[in-house]
Structure formats: structure tokens, C-alpha cells
Records
---
Amino acid sequence: MASKPTIYIVCSDRHRNGKTLLARVLVDYLMLNGKDPFIIDATFPEGPLRAAFPGRTALVDFSQIQGQMKVFDTILGSSGRDYVIDLPAPQTENFFKAFRELGFQSEALKTGFQIVVLFIIDKEYASLNAAEDIRTLIAPSLLVNVRNQHVGSILDQQTYGLTLDVPILDRDIVPLIEDKRFSLRAFILGDVSSLPERYHTKLRIFLHAMMTSLREIEPAISLAKLQG
């Protein structure tokens, strides 16, 4: 993945469109590539990522000032590793408001971080507009368009910038891999015992497509720097 420590922010302006699954795959991808990501799970109080990665996750309530400060202070106070922030839709606007008002981007860049936003763009033009507002706010950092094929998206093939596709995943597989005891990383490494054999090929195809897309982020970061 990226050579410099990177803050990955997974977000959308809409509910239930695959943000947490994307964040989970991203964390496993980073770990498979030798990284040591720390996770900020802002889905309070449920904490689905904390359940999947209990030893490397902080659960925060970003609707509270204390939660906002915890996120930014944690990252700036412990540089040198990657961070993955999973934002629920209601907190996306709050996060980027604080991001701007607190000057977090400039401080993070001075500390040596890169910033990548993965924004799942839903079916309405308002979702595309929300992504473009964030793209402008974080420039020259990178915003990656994400299109979840299961829920649909307003994006088309002519949209500029990097677009990551989340393939449709068999609905029978979803509850199985959402079990906190199931590890996508372990499955990729060959431990398939916790998933019925009839689903192995489908999950492998899904994960291969996701991992292939995630590999495109690092070249896109380099291109964004050149264009910036």
C-alpha cells in the first residue's frame, strides 16, 4: 500500500451501503501487506469493527466533543502507523467540519501522514455532491469514489478519479463473515474451516476483486501529488 503512514477515512452520506465491510477488508489488506493499522470505530455504541479487531480498535462517540478530540489526538500523538477511520453516515458531516475547523489536515501532513478518503457514493446526486465537497476540502489529498454494486450508485464510467467497485456478495455469506470470530485475513491465508465449502469460491472471487482494487490506491496517491 502507501509507503508513508496513511489515514484512511471510510465514509458516506447514506446508511447501510457497505462502509464497515469496506473498512474491514481494508484493514485486512493492510495487515496482509505488512502494515500495523489502528482502527477508529465511530459506530457507537455497536462497534462492529472493534468486535472484528478487538486488540487494535478504539470505539469513539464522534457526536461528542470528547470523542472528536480523542480521534484527532490519538492519531497526531501516535504517528508512524496507518489508521483506518470508519464513520457512520450521521457523523460524516460532523467529522469533516471538525477536520476543517481544527486544521487537522495540515497538522497530519506536517506529522508525516497521507490522507485518503474512501467515499461510498449512493444512488442520489446528493451523495455525489457530498463526495465532491469533501474532495475539494481535502485537496490535494486523495478521495476515492466507491461504488457498491449491491446497493447501486449514481456513478458511471465517465466519473473522473479513481473508482473502487465493491462487488455483489452472496447474501447468504454476509451473516457468516459478520460473525466476530470470522477472519477474512485468515480465510485468504488458507484457513477456510469456518465457512461452508459451497461459499469458498464466491468469497475468494469477492476478496480478489476487492484486493485488486485496493492496490490501485498507492499509484493514485502518487498521481494526486503530481497533479497537486
---
Amino acid sequence: MAAFTERPEVLANPRAERVRKVAALSGRSARVRAHRLLVEGPQAVRELLTHQGHCVVDVYLTERAVELHPDIAALARQATPWTHRVTEEVASAMSANAQGIIAVARCEAINRSISRIEPGSTLVLLAQGRDPGNVGTIIRTADAMGARAVITVSGTVDITGPKVIRASAGSVFHLPILNVTDFHEGVALVHDLGAQVFGTSGASGSHNLADLMLSATLEARAWMSESHAWAFGNEAQGMSEAELDACDLLVRIDMTGNAESLNVASAAAMCLYASQTVRTMRS
């Protein structure tokens, strides 16, 4: 996609070519061709500007958005000369979910590499998560709980999609997010980083998460004191037998209520909180 160089004082035509190009970035093919991301809403745009401002191409703000979020307007002006005022109609044509704040950024805003991790680090390995809301929420939770990186297996929803970025509340701009071809490649990467893989499963022989957190024995505590990656499967099918077999340890979350199972994002939150708890107790 050609750089946006025309800069009218206020963008008011919702059918303008510029507006059409920005809106098209909601689709993966347009993002790949343009090598651009569409970032929607105040929180995600704020995190983009704060942490990856050098990757910002354009920012679009309505008058009301500037009044409500003057800090974002100031960050935008610092990051790029291409900060545009737009009408509410134009903002809606670009994105129905942006609350009047939209940014276009280069794909390098999402870090795709990691060379090492500190001892005791936590990682996340996502095996074909298909729901953008769940994937974005897991990335946000991993960020909040101090995880070092997220690894996604091909078949996982595209993390450059605006729904994932929005659900992550901008955490995609904090953490390295790597993609691998298959689950076994992800396991190999985790092992190369000096970590073990913990699969989530209620199968026979799995360890109770509470026991791993709270047991007074050094053997049980040691599993989570060392670097590890939590592996989470597909929302509908969970992890396959081959994926479970590739894990170094299987962990279950015991439930006392009547629910049949946990949403994958909820399970991830519990596992990542457990890792943070053990890590902070050790430090």
C-alpha cells in the first residue's frame, strides 16, 4: 500500500480512497500486501504509541476522541507527523470498533523474535487457537502475569488481526510473539530456550495445579520454579494425543462445581497466575 501523503485538514469523506484502504486492513490479505496493521480503540492505540511509536504510520482521531483522550493525541503527534482529524462518519467507515481512535502501523510493531530467557521464566504455547477474543485475552493475561513470550502454532488465528489486537488491549506490542509451523516445532523452540512444556489436560496421570503451587515438597515445587511454557489447545477439541505426548508434564485444574469445562482463556489465566505466584514467592 502506498504511503498516505495527502493530508487534508479534516478527513470528511467516508468514501475516500484513503478511508477504504484503512478499512481494508481488517482483512488479512490487505495486511500482507501492505505490510501494515490496523489498530483500533484507545487502549490498543495508546500501547502502540507508547511502546512501538517508531512503527506508527498514521493516526486518525475524531474531535470527541481528542477531548476524551488528550494523552493519546499528544503521543500521536510525537510519533508521526501524519496525525489526522476525522469526522465521526469517517472513523466509523474505517472501523466500527475504534471509539474514534485508529492507527496504521508497520507489522514490525509486533516483535517476532526472542534469543534467550531468564531462569524461571514463563512462556505460552498456543496450539491452533481459533477464536480471536480468546487468543487476544491469553496474550493480555500472559503479559499481565509476567510471561516472557507467546508462541503460536500455524492454524492459530492471525495475531495481526484487529480483533486479536483489540482483545489483547495492546499487549501484542509488549511481548515477543513467535509463530511456528507445528506443535512439535514449538516444543523444540521451548526446549532450546531451556524450558519445559506443561500441557493442560484432565487425563489420568496429570498433576493437580494446586498441588504444584502449594505442595511443601521440593520435588513438586521444582516443576514450576524452573522455566516452563504453558501449552493450550484448540477451544473445541483441546490438545491432541500427539500434542499431549510431546509435553514434559500434564497439569489439570480440578473443579468442584457443575461446569463441564473451563474456557481456554480462563484456564490460561489460572495457570499463568499460578506461575506468577511461584515466581514471586521464589524471588
---
Amino acid sequence: MSTADAKLWLDRINALKITETIKIMNVCGGHERALNQAGLRTLLPSKIELIPGPGCPVCICPEEAIAMAMNIALNESAIVVTFGDMMRVPINAAKAEPRSLEQARACGGDIRPIASPIEARLIALQHPNQQVLFFMAGFETTTAPTAALITEGIPDNLLLLLAARRTWPAVAHLLSDERPGFDALIAPGHVSAVMGSDEWRFVADQHQLPVAVAGFDAASLLAAIYSVITQKQRGKAELENCYPSVVTTAGNRIAQQLIEQTMNVVDSRWRGIGTIPASGYALNKSACAHDAHIHFSQYAINNDQNHHMPPGCDCAQVVLGKCYPNQCRLYGSACTPSTPIGPCMVSDEGACRIWWANGLHKTLAHKQA
């Protein structure tokens, strides 16, 4: 869609008579970034609140997975590779111990950032006599190519440490609260491209909340915002696909089949939230020979407290849509992109990092979500 399309949708929204505040959660960190870069919060009517949601895989990756990857790198003759934004995610640790993969690398661990599962395969092939561990944290959009990596033939010396998560169960978890904190939902475009728009139909059918799938340009986002507002005003909750150029009802069946062939759906921990039923993936029997949880089981940590954020950090509330980033007690003071305390200040999809990068600092006043 063009800039003219965006202006058209913005004019339509501003022409609506909105008498009551409507709180719209955007699940995806990519959506949050696009909203801020386009300055949409400053252009929309004041009664429209856009609330960041739990759609940042780096932010919700459990501490025990990061700690396991760090311990393997520091104690085994193994190369650990992971997506670049995982390198700086802090965990709770003693002051004398490394608190991130980046710090573990500084302590001697062979830890390397990569941008694609293909790079993990290449590094494993380049080092056939050394164990290579691919620590993969991500949603369905990165789970599918990881499943393809397995299906196409994975090197014997490549292990996978999965922190793969399914997006819709987190939203279902939020909606199970008697007061979920939002009145409508903008569903993630990339996840929907893989899993299909119908995956979000439960929001309208079971919870009677308007929902629209959006792309990542201003026009598509504004079209989705217009859709959920008008649904709310009509008193009829529906699912609308505002990203039809990429998203279909059923999604990418080949990608889904690859995931089904290599992985099982399991209960999984989300940092800041806790365990959510059927919200993650684990390697199935066909791929268990490459499961780092089995090969390096001595480094596995099972502690229900490990979903907690650092002391004073309100990232959990941000992830749950209960507060805005600049309402965190540490935001802009102890916690900045150069010295992140919580995970939401690290990734380009983390709400705190996005707000900071777009000049939304602690001095700005925002309403409680």
C-alpha cells in the first residue's frame, strides 16, 4: 500500500465518532516498530490506545534456555550459534558471573551470532570435528526454517537448543484473564503468513473481540485499526485479513507440515508470564539425535522461578500489556539500550528498545494500559 492509502485510512479513522476509549493490542514486535516509526500514536485520535503485546521472542525466551547455552559454551568444546539479538539478553546471575551470551563470549566461550539457520549448517560443515549448537529462540516464522533445516539433512555434529514458541496460545492466555486489558487485537502478519489467518478466529468467536491481521506498512496497520474500531462500534466481533497480499486463510501448508514432521507441541515457559499450555515446540523422535536438551542434559535447569525478570524491572508487565515501556521503574535510568537490565530493551522487536529508539523517553506522559 502507498502513502496515499495510509492517508486515506487515517482520514477514515479520524472521521469516526469515537466516544469511548478503545484499547488495541498489537501482538507483533514488528508491528510495534512500524507503528512508532510512522508516528501513528501521534496521529490517531486520543481515545485510541495502542498497546504493545507479547510478540517479541527475545523478550519472552526463558532464562534457563539462555543459561544452558552459556554453560555449554563455557564448559564444553562446542561452538554456540544464535540469532544476533539473543547475544545481549540479560539473565539474573551473580555479579561475578556472565549475565548474557555476549559476556560469556568475553569469558572465553565460542559464541557466534548468525542471521539464518543455513549459517548454523555451514558452520557445522566447516567444523566437522567439533560440536556445534544452534540456540534458536523464535516464533513460527523462524521455527519453520529450522524445521526445514532438519528435513533437508542436518550435519551429525549440529545440535539444536530450541526455545521455539507458538504465538496464539500467549494471546489465549491473556484473554483468559477476567480483565485482559484490551478491547481488540491486531494479529501478526508474518506468523499469519505461516499459520494462516484462521488461527486468530478464536479471538472473535470465543472472546467476542474484534481482530484484524495486519502487514507492516502504515496503510495496512491503519486498515486493521479501522477494521477493529468499526467492528467494535457495530457490536459485532469478526476476523478481517488486512494483509491479503501475503496472508491466506490456511497459511503456508508446506511450512506447517515441516514443523509437524520434526516437532511436537509442548507446554512451555515464557519469561515474564510463566508456563503456557501447548505454547512451544520440542524436537520429536525423528530429530531427537540432534536435541541439545538430551545431549547436554546436565546443563538443563528446571526452576519455576526462572521466568522472573530482574529486580525492579517491569518487562513482565510490558509483555503482558499491563503498562507502557516508559512506565517501567528502570526505563531510561538504569535500563537503556547500552546497559539493558530487562530483555525488552535489547531486541529490535522489544517494546522498550523500540520506544527508546523512537524518542519515547521517560519524560513523556502516557496513560496506563
---
Amino acid sequence: MSKHTIILGIESSCDDTSAAIIKEGKVLSNIIASQHIHTLYGGVVPELASRAHQQNIIPVVDQAIKKAGILKSEISAVAFTRGPGLMGSLLVGTSFAKAFSMGLKIPLIEVNHMQGHILAHFIDDSDVKIAKPKFPFLCLTVSGGHTQIVLVKDFFNMAVIGETIDDAAGEAFDKAAKMMGLPYPGGPLIDTYAKEGNPNAFRFSKPKIQDLNFSFSGLKTGFMNFITNETAKNPHFIETHKADICASIQRTIIDVLMDKLKKAAIETNINQIAIAGGVSANSELRSTLEQLKQELNWQVYIPKFEYCTDNAAMIAITGYYKFLKNDFTNQGIAPLPKYLLAIN
């Protein structure tokens, strides 16, 4: 038996089945099986997602263990995403983790998906040494389902100090893309087309929300009206102005995010700033943060691309820190589709 702490992480909250092996905080493998069937429907279909997880989970876990070059008997504990996410998808990962834990008689560790995104910053990677944020720090977590500003005091002391009151930033990207006729997932395509466009070509009104909270529903409605009006005048409007439209809506969404983040940094007097979640892979968001690093004397932490979107390495690293403090769960555990991030 290995004397090292080796964690198997399992992530199945939405439409990616992922398994990872982490040994003493260092990633040995991080395997992700994506589901392409949802492209046909313009969004994730929960029933199809859970069926695909059932097909993928055993091969993905097997591949992660083989790539890591370890034996199943060396695994110290299994960590899994308990929530938030799609119920059917979470059930597959939870059930597998419980069975794996029982079969090997090893501890079971439940992980909040959003905490996993934040702690992805503490993954040790064999390729390049990336600086890790120092506590306390602010983390802007942005994805298709969440937009939050989290005050991170340590690994297990986090408070959400700002969040969206309606739609998430990632959903705003995807819905804007859909209105333009771009295939799902549209967020990365907007990022791609925006590189060739003028971010000041079109103006969209920004929501005026108090405190550190966000809102994107009004922006989506405004964008829909803009597209409807312009295409009524010129049926080829989207095609002829695609890059400028993408650059302009992307700039607006990122401005909304950055305005609140700057406000949070001032209010908390914290200059350690991190981003996490799928939208943190957006190239404009990353470059904007790098600019603010210079302008505002921020210490900025941006995860590697592979740890931005849903992945099991972030679940495994969270499981690793939970393992060190003997924070285990039991076989009676059930998934939580709505799992608030409130850890003290």
C-alpha cells in the first residue's frame, strides 16, 4: 500500500464526465469525456446527459487510474461532486463514488462544485509552477450556471459577497450566441469572433444593481431587441457585423463583471484577485484582468485553461484538503442540485 495520500476525484455535475487522480496535491491524470449530443438541441438536455454519464463513467475512471500509473489499492479516498448541478448527472457520479468507496473500504468525500472551482488554484501541475493566491483573496466565479464574488479566507472559510439575482454571465454569452444563430455552446464562439471585432461598435445598456450583485436578464432582453430591430432593417446584419456584435456584447458582459469586482476589492481592501469557472477561459476576461493587475496593483491569479471548465482535478484537490482534516461523509449521502456555497 502507498503511504502517499492519493485521491480519486469524480465530476459529473452537468455534461462532462471527468475523473482525476491527485497525489499529495499534484495532478497525475485528469480525464474528461464531453457530450456532443447536446449541440443538436442548442443546450444541455438533462435526461440525455445522465445517460451519457452512465456510459462514460467507468471508462473515464479506468483511464484516469491507468494514466496516473497507480493501482486501485493505492487510492486513499474518493471525492465526488455532490452539487450544485443537474440531479440525474449528479446521481451517476454520487452512486459510482459510493460504490467505489464501499468496494475498496476507503473514505468518501463530498465536494461543493463551486468550492472545487475556487480551489482549482491550488492544484500542483507537473508542467509549470503557477503562483497560488494568498489568503484572504477574492474569487470571481463565472460559469453557465453561476456568477459570484467569493471572499476566500482559507480552504474552508468562504463567503459569497455578491451574486447574480437572475441569470449567470455564461448563460448570457450562450443566449446571445443563440440569438445570433451560432451553435451551442456559443460562449467560446463569441470569444473567437470578438478577436476580429470592434468592442465599441455597438452599445448595450448595463444593469444598475445595488451592492455587489449582478443581473444579466435585462442585458439579454436588450440584446434580443437590438438583433430583432437590426435584422428587420437588414436581413444580413448579423453576418456582415458578426465580429463587431460579438466584441461589443462580450465587452459589455466583462465590464459588468469587472465593475463589481473592482468595487469588491475596494470594499474589502483586498488586492489578491482570482477567477474561476468556465467563463474564466474567456480570452478577453483574462487579458482585462492582466490590464487591471497593472492599473490597480492587483495580484491576479488565472487558472490553466483545463482547470477552468468542469473537471475532476478541482474535485480531487478539494478532496485532498478535506482528507487532511478527516472531513468524510457516509453512504447515506444524497446529491444536492441546489448546494449553496457557505462554508465556515
